[in-house]
Design brief:
Blueprint lengths: L2 H13 L12 H25 L4 E5 L1 E9 L2 E5 L3 E5 L1 H4 L8 E20 L26 E10 L2 E10 L20 E10 L4 E4 L7 H6 L12 E3 H7 L4 H7 L1 E12 L10 E6 L14 E9 L5 E24 L1 H29 L3 H8 L6 H10 L1
Parallel strand pairs: 11-14
Antiparallel strand pairs: 1-14, 2-8, 3-4, 5-7, 5-14, 6-7, 8-9, 8-10, 11-12, 13-14
Bound molecules: adenosine-5'-triphosphate (ATP).
Adenosine-5'-triphosphate binds next to β2, β8 and α4.
Length: about 400
């Protein structure tokens, strides 16, 4: 192609303007469908994306800290213990934990244990008839200590292998019923929860600004009357999970205290308040009776009058409460607003696609509409040849 012609066609390309042709179809049915689709998409954008999902806001997730203090006393008068008063320093183990606390509700206590030799418990499967049944030095996860190799009398008619262990061994196998510390139902817990949404530089705590020191001394959380009091009665927490405190106290369990902060920071800060819910987190299925509840052992050590190291072993049953804080805050921002509106406008094109499909494939007069919508053009070379023949 000569250079001059090439230059001309480039000039034509630069200086020409093309635009898609719009076909206006005057069909009431299709027009109605088009408007309906547009209406549905518009309601979706305004109702769901912008209003319900707050598509005009930027969101930040929560950062929080939790401080817990339990109070209450329980008076126990049992045959094994005699009279004893328990306060929070006795039944909260350990005294401080991160976002959780354990309240002992039942226990098996073995006092005055010292290191020495004693017969193994028959329940541990070390029954014997002679020393040859007991392997000296054997350590088994189910034994209470190290086997000495001797077979000794446990009680009349029963012989077991001797062990080097903390003696006397813990012999009580069944937990006390009713629970020794069933009075824990009336204990109260103060939960101090400080939260922050770093992106918006917004901080708040669950002891709300309108709560006074005197109110805090007396209030107890109640879902309808005192929904923002940060002091909870343990019995009320367990009741809201659908369980009975005295049943749970026997063998223990795990309860979740969920604190939800969903804050709309376009509104007043006083509307950003916590919502509390409670859930049983361990398996509560009564049919699954293998290894239910929650227990562990710990000991208190001291020296007896003879100067020998002695301990009191406690198998503690109780309820572990886990505090979980979650939530998010939203605030108006122009960028998410533009993205939500832009994607909504793009969706409006769906109406055209749908109506095109109806017109071109489903309607009786689809061939007529096809002819009107598309302009059919022959291959350029063939078009020229045909013109020459004429
Ligand atoms: N578990 C709880 N049940 C009921 N009230 C509580 C509990 N924990 C704390 N409080 C009360 O809430 C207020 C604030 O408690 P905070 O622990 O901040 O202060 P405190 O002076 O160290 O409390 P205290 O010495 O009474 O334990 C105090 O009046 C306190 O008595």
């Amino acid at each position: 192609m000569p250079l001059r012609e090439t230059c001309c066609s480039v000039c034509d390309f630069i200086l020409e303007y093309d635009t898609p042709r719009i076909v206006l179809i005057k069909n009431k049915k299709v027009g109605l469908i088009n408007r309906l689709v547009q209406l549905v998409i518009l309601s979706y954008i305004i109702g769901w994306v912008l209003i319900w999902r707050k598509g005009y806001q930027d969101f930040d997730s929560i950062v929080s800290s939790v401080i817990i203090k339990v109070k209450g006393v329980a008076f126990v008068n049992s045959s094994g213990f005699g009279e004893r008063l328990w306060d929070s320093a006795d039944y909260i183990i350990p005294p401080e934990q991160e976002s959780s606390f354990f309240v002992m509700t039942n226990l098996i206590r073995t006092e005055n244990q010292t290191q020495g030799h004693c017969p193994e418990l028959p329940k541990n499967g070390f029954n014997c008839t002679s020393d040859s049944n007991c392997t000296a030095g054997l350590i088994d996860p189910h034994s209470s200590g190290v086997l000495t190799g001797k077979c000794v009398t446990f009680n009349e008619g029963v012989k077991t292998c001797e062990v080097l262990a903390w003696c006397p061994l813990e012999s009580q196998t069944v937990f006390p019923n009713p629970a020794l510390l069933g009075g824990a139902e009336n204990f109260t817990v103060l939960i101090k929860n400080n939260i922050r949404f770093p992106q918006f530089n917004f901080s708040k705590r669950n002891i709300l600004p309108n709560i006074s020191a005197s109110y805090l001394k007396t209030c107890v959380f109640n879902r309808t009357k005192e929904p923002y009091c940060p002091i909870f009665r343990l019995g009320d927490i367990v009741r809201e999970t659908g369980d009975k405190f005295q049943e749970l106290a026997l063998q223990g369990g795990v309860i979740g205290i969920l604190i939800k902060w969903n804050c709309n920071l376009d509104r007043s800060a006083s509307e950003c308040v916590p919502q509390y819910t409670f859930q049983r987190l361990d398996n509560r299925n009564v049919d699954e009776t293998v290894s239910p509840g929650y227990n562990f052992r710990y000991a208190k050590y001291y020296e007896n009058s003879a100067g020998k190291e002695t301990r009191t072993l406690i198998k503690a049953y109780g309820i572990r409460f886990e505090v979980e804080v979650f939530g998010k805050a939203g605030k108006f921002n122009i960028i998410p607003t533009m993205i939500s509106i832009g994607s909504g406008i793009a969706l409006l094109g769906m109406g055209t696609v749908l109506c095109d499909m109806i017109i071109l494939h489903l309607l009786k007069k689809r061939n007529y509409y096809k002819e009107k919508k598309y302009k059919y053009v022959e291959d350029y070379e063939r078009g020229i040849d045909d013109a020459d023949d004429d």
